[in-house]
Amino acid sequence: MAISVASGSRNLFLAEAIYKEPGFNQSSWVSGVTFNRCIQKDISWSLWVSKLLHVQANFQCPPVSRQQKPFRGIIALCLRNNATKYFDFAVIGSGVAGLRYALEVAKHGTVAVITKAEPHESNTNYAQGGVSAVLCPSDSVESHMQDTIIAGAYLCDEEIVRVVCTEGPDRIRELIAMGASFDHGEDGNLHLTREGGHSHDRIVHAADMTGREIERALLQAVVKDPNIFMFEHHVALDLLTSQDGSDTVCHGVDTLNTETQEVVRFISKVTLLASGGAGHIYPMTTNPLVATGDGVAMAHRAQAVISNMEFVQFHPTALADEGLPRRPTKTRENAFLISEAVRGDGGILYNLGMKRFMPFYDDRAELASRDVVARSIDDQLKKRNEKYVLLDISHKPREKILSHFPSIASECLKYGLNITKQPIPVVPAAHYMCGGIRAGLEGETNVKGLYVAGEVACTGLHGANRLASNSLLEALVFARRAVQPSIDHRNSCSSLDCNASNQWPRLAVSTPLGREVIDKIMRMTGEIRKELQTVMWNYVGIVRSTTTLTTAEQRIAVLEAKWEEYLFHHGWKPTMVGRGVCEMRNLFCCAKLVVSSALSRTESRGLHYTIDFPHLEESKRLPTIIFPCSTVNSTWSSRQLHRQATY
Fold it and tell me: Which cell locations does it reside in (predicted)?
């Protein structure tokens, strides 16, 4: 059974559904011809020289510039112009999931890694705490499973939880073998810490910059791989899909090169979505600016099944700039995270009256799961009419604080706060989407040829609330699990067809509208974006009600209609693209998915807390499912721009 929501609607029904959908098997490539064995690609000179060492002789390519180097890899490729590129595998996202997957599938074909900004600009890079895994003799897989399921409010898929907790340690060892450097104790073993919700010390970390270290190691390996091509500053716009009987099939993705303002089409046999979350549907988020829900929105438009979008995790402790001795001179693009590990290392939460409050909410006090701590802080702020609380670690030895939390100490010191002597002002911030594109045991989706890993996916691991440091672990495990089915699907496909690209309408940049009109549209879009974020924060936040959710639904609909009317009145066409406008489209789509899912859950479970239904109900311990529904196409954000290809 699953709680089901018709796409674009909150008309609810209960339907018989197995959590891992049947029929997730791969289908064959339906069209293909032999083509010229060459590729043109924009890469840096030094990287090209490295890759050129692997080039085989006896091939011909059209003349190319220094920025467009010829390269022939193990797999035949065709690139007739810069507007279309052909690869065996297209990876959307350059975080831990995308890069780890790319390194494996590159052993079997050519890989395009498509990233929205610089390769390192991902949620992975901002992950401070670490990766959870059973690496201590006193710990066990069963214990890790139990902690995960309890944190997830018993909505987790037990089979998925067992797989991740069992395979996790090997994924950590693989990272170490690749050169990732984690902290070790005086005994020479990995230094393991504990975070909220964990019953054992099992967090592998690199000080408080774990994500950055993992990203560094993976990017270093990617640069050396001759079969992986990185496309920076390419914003994914829409998946390219066709219909094969009752199956929807993915054949690649359209992107916008934001440096050249050109639309670039990637035709691929296999596509992996690893594009991260949607933190920027809220005004206060720890996510980087790139996290605008592009992957979930694109997949939803492409008829993928979406699940559990009501479960938005608010990290309890983001730095509250208002409480700093010296406030930043400009507004941050994203909130600075104060790691879960600070509480794991003994940090204590106080209100501004210096009263410790967590023991009144949960027996685990500061080590309670994130949903409990975030709600407790929210309650304190509302009861006391205050804007932040205090997190104090200053009672610990100075050397220990500085060695465990160097980046946090450095960031706070910029604004006159010494965390070895003073408490840190903190406030909850949107942090992680526990829901997303519904995935099976191997990262497969109901769209053939489309796989998912990382935050964009809903595997069933997190249930109603993610256990601290399980996200990097999940990304590593599913990036590896998606490899073999991807290779199998790739092998079942015919050769890539150079004419396939013409079977979808071409998107176009908005340049013909003129600079003045575009500037007006972007200003309006920026205002609408802030209004949407405010609606989500005020009405779809840590504590909800049927009234607030219904109000949000109505206000979002009005905002979206107002925005679209403005766009199209000023000459915008549905086939036009621009980064800000396309992100806004995706933010609307994800916000509506969150609200629809939240309205469907008439109980409080994990991250979804509603005052109208404040208790758990065992009969409603079901995932929320949003099935594709082609009849609901009332707004642009819900529509797939590309016509289904006919073969």
Answer: Plastid, Chloroplast
